[in-house]
Structure formats: C-alpha cells, structure tokens
TrEMBL record, chain A:
InterPro entries tied to this protein: ATPase_E_C, ATPase_V1_Esu
Source taxon at top rank: Eukaryota
Name used for this protein in its record: Vacuolar ATP synthase subunit E
Keyword Ion transport: yes
GO MF term list: proton-transporting ATPase activity, rotational mechanism
Key words of the record: Ion transport, Transport
TrEMBL record, chain B:
Pfam families on file: V-ATPase_G (PF03179)
PANTHER family, per the entry: V-TYPE PROTON ATPASE SUBUNIT G (PTHR12713:SF11), VACUOLAR ATP SYNTHASE SUBUNIT G (PTHR12713)
GO cellular component: vacuolar proton-transporting V-type ATPase, V1 domain
GO terms of molecular function: ATP hydrolysis activity; proton-transporting ATPase activity, rotational mechanism
Source species of the chain: Sordaria brevicollis
Superkingdom, natural source: Eukaryota
UniProt name for this protein: V-type proton ATPase subunit G
Matches recorded under NCBIfam families: V_ATP_synt_G
Subunit (UniProt): V-ATPase is a heteromultimeric enzyme made up of two complexes: the ATP-hydrolytic V1 complex and the proton translocation V0 complex.
Gene3D superfamilies documented for this protein: 1.20.5.2950
InterPro entries documented for this protein: V-ATPase_G (IPR005124)
Function: Subunit of the V1 complex of vacuolar(H+)-ATPase (V-ATPase), a multisubunit enzyme composed of a peripheral complex (V1) that hydrolyzes ATP and a membrane integral complex (V0) that translocates protons. V-ATPase is responsible for acidifying and maintaining the pH of intracellular compartments and in some cell types, is targeted to the plasma membrane, where it is responsible for acidifying the extracellular environment.
Length: 230, 115
C-alpha cells in the first residue's frame, strides 16, 4: 500500500456513507420545501379562483333577482290597472246608456204647448240676462216660430219688469235650428258673434260634464277616497 | 485503488441520481397541485353557481304563482264590482234620467245672469 491513502477502506466506506446520507438528506429537505410551497400555492390559487368567480356570480344573480322583482312589480301594477279600467269602463257604459236614454226622451217637453212655451220663455230669459244687450237674435226650429215668438214676448216683458231695460229679440228665419232637434232656442248676440245654445241637445250635452258628480253619487255612492270637496 | 475510487465515485453518482429523483418527484407534485387547484376551484364554482340558479328558479316559481293568484283575485274583485255597478244602475237609472231631463227643461234665468 502507498502512503498516499490516508484513510483505510473502512474509513472510506464510512465517509461514503456519510456523504450519500447527506446528499439524500439535502434532497429530501429540498423536496419537502417544494411540497410545502406547492400546498401553499394550491390553497392560494384555489381560493383566489373561487372568490373571483363567486363574486362575479353573486353580482350577476343580484342583477337577475332585481330584474325579476321589478318585472313582478310591473305585472302586479298592470293587473291592478287593468282591473281599475274594467270597472271604470263598466261605469262609463252605464252613464252613456243613461244619457242616450235621456236623449231619446227629449221630445216629451214639446208634448204640451203650454209647458213648452213656459220652458222656452225661461230659456230665452237665460239668454237675455247673460247677454245683457238691447237687441238679440233668436234661432229656433221652423215649426216652433210661432210659439217662440209668444215666449219671447213674455220673456221680454219679464226682463223689463226685473231689470227696467228693454230687449228686442227677433227670430232669424234664415237660419233655423235643424229639423232633427228636439226643441229649445239659440240666443245670438254680440253682433252675431256670441251665441248661447239653449237647445235641449246642447243643454243635455252640458250636463254630461256638470251632472257627473251628482250622478256618480246617486249611482255609485260616495267615494271613500275623496279628500277635497270645494 | 483506482477500482476503489471508481466504486466510491459510482456510489456518489448513484446518490446524486437518487437525490435528483426525489427532487423531481417533488416538482411533479407541485405541478400536480397547480392543476388540482384549478380543477377543485372549478368544481366549487360550478356547485355554487348551481345553488344560486336553484335559488333563483325557486324565487321565480314562487312569484309566478303569486302573480297568478293576484290576477285571479283582481278578476274576481272586478266581477264583483261590475255586478254592483249593474245592480245600482238598474235600480237608480229611471230616477237619474228623470233628474237629467228635469235639469234640461228647467231654465234658471237669474242664476245664469250671475256669471
């Protein structure tokens, strides 16, 4: 044996074993580090992905829920509206029917000449007071000219009595009221520019607005929701 | 001697090789974990989404039902009120017509002068 070999075979073997053990240990420690890191990264990555996506899902569903709720409110409101309209429609039908029936019976005033003359006098007087002019023109149905003339004289007399003013009302025979009218009279003043339509049709027409509150009360009772009565 | 040397070197080389296998295995584990993170995340996300969808569907179903109930109730109420209107109508019609005609045929001269 040469002098160069400082170690015996046994010692070499021992050294080798120590070195292999060391190499192995280092490798296992490194492997452990890598595994620990891998698990950490796993947890972080997984929770990041889950959170990102669930947030997105949450906001998408929040929107969906809100829309569904809104659409439901719209539906409910539409239903309520439709119902209200149905009921109002029925009311209106009834009112229209009543006005039509009244319209058909407008002829009854003319059945008695005396009564008709009296009514005409009142209608003409209304015109006199409203116009407050000394000269007025009357329009009426051709068939009524005579009775209108008589009524007009009576009206002028009463007017003079109540106001001490004279009024001269002439019938415009060039412009009679249409044949189909049920009666009444039109008083024209202001140089032909202002007229008060006191035909029965026109008066009934005015009632279509003005009589509604009273009619509604008579037919449908008081409105429990009403707050203002002036 | 040189035989001993090369045996020793061989042992060390083998040890290095085993060591690198160990590390390599760890590295493969790491790669696997990255993939697992994505796969598990995906599964959890889908489960969450399915749950949310189920909640939503339930909500919708409840409200469709509620809407139908409201519609039926509204229809019934409308029927009842229309019936009331018709009854009142037939009861009071004649009087109202009479009152209207009375108003048409009753001029009020003084009152008109007031405006």
């Amino acid at each position: 044996m040469s002098q160069i070999h400082a170690l015996s075979d046994d010692q070499v073997g021992q050294e080798l074993r120590k070195m292999t053990a060391f190499i192995r240990q280092e490798a296992e420690e490194k492997a452990r580090e890598i595994e620990i890191k891998a698990n950490e990264e796993f947890a972080i990555e997984k929770s990041k992905l889950v959170r990102q996506e669930t947030d997105a899902i949450d906001s998408a569903y929040a929107k969906k829920f809100k829309q569904a709720q809104m659409s439901q409110q719209i539906t409910r409101s539409t239903v309520a509206n439709k119902t209200r309209l149905k009921v109002l429609g029925a009311r209106q039908e009834l009112l229209d029917d009543i006005f039509e029936a009244a319209s058909a019976q407008l002829g009854e005033a003319t059945s008695s000449q005396d009564r008709y003359k009296d009514i005409l006098k009142g209608l003409i007087l209304e015109g006199f007071y409203a116009m407050n002019e000394p000269e007025l023109v009357l329009r009426a149905r051709k068939a009524d000219y005579d009775v209108v003339r008589q009524a007009s004289e009576a009206a002028s007399a009463e007017y003079k009595e109540k106001t001490e003013k004279d009024v001269k009302a002439t019938i415009d025979e060039e412009n009679p009221v249409a044949e189909g009218s049920a009666g009444g009279v039109i008083i024209v003043g202001g140089n032909g520019k202002i007229d008060i339509d006191n035909t029965f049709e026109a008066r009934l027409n005015l009632l279509k607005d003005s009589a509604l509150p009273a009619m509604r009360k008579a037919l449908f009772g008081e409105n429990p929701n009403r707050k203002f009565f002036d | 001697m040189s035989a001993q040397n090369s045996a020793g070197i061989q042992t060390l080389l083998d040890a290095e090789r085993d060591a690198s296998k160990i590390v390599q295995k760890a590295r493969e584990y790491r790669t696997k974990r990255v993939r697992e993170a994505r796969d598990e995340a995906k599964k959890e996300i889908e489960a969450y989404k399915a749950q949310k969808e189920a909640e939503f569907k339930k909500f919708e179903a409840e409200h469709t039902q509620g809407n139908k109930a409201a519609q039926d109730e509204a229809d019934a109420e409308a029927e009842a009120r229309i019936r009331e209107i018709k009854e009142s109508g037939s009861k009071n019609r004649e009087q109202v017509i009479k009152d209207l005609l009375h108003a048409v045929f009753t001029p009020v001269p003084e009152a008109m002068a007031a405006h």
